[in-house]
Amino acid sequence: MSAHFYDYVRGLSDQVPAGYSDNGMRAYRHLVHLGASQMVEAHFPELREQLGDEAWRELITAFVRDSRWSSPYYGDMKDAFLEFIARESTRED
């Protein structure tokens, strides 16, 4: 798969890569975000509850787009999320 595919799925680009359908790519992007949301929430349910729906969606979107998460395994997401939060918190200071 190409970098264009991953850029689209992560939300770095809104240009559908050549050879893929718009509907299929939107569905795949949604599934990646849904999986990320569910896995992160499983480890941090209190954070999800404290943030509320809109802030949670924004956080997950930023995580999928900007994190260094590169493992194909959702189970590795907890560590990538913690690294993302640590990096983002120092960036805001």
From TrEMBL:
Tree of life domain: Bacteria
A Pfam family this chain is assigned to: DUF2063
Alphabetic keyword roster: DNA-binding
The protein, known as: DNA-binding domain-containing protein
GO MF, one example: DNA binding
Start and end residues of each Putative DNA-binding domain: 3-85
